Amino acid sequence: MLHIDIPVSLVEWIISLFKYKHLRVVTAYGLSDGFIRNDGINQGDALFPLL
Prior knowledge:
Blueprint (H helix, E strand, L loop, with lengths): L7 H11 L2 E3 L2 E2 L2 E2 L3 E3 L14
Antiparallel strand pairs: 1-4, 2-3
């Protein structure tokens, strides 16, 4: 993104959207304990083609 002159502050903000997401899962037994996912992109994310 920096190669196409997107401002560093915007690149850092986009990166922060995908890092260290705190997640919980709904199971048949209730809500799981939270955990942190620190990699990957959300399924169907509109930004994916641009990354």
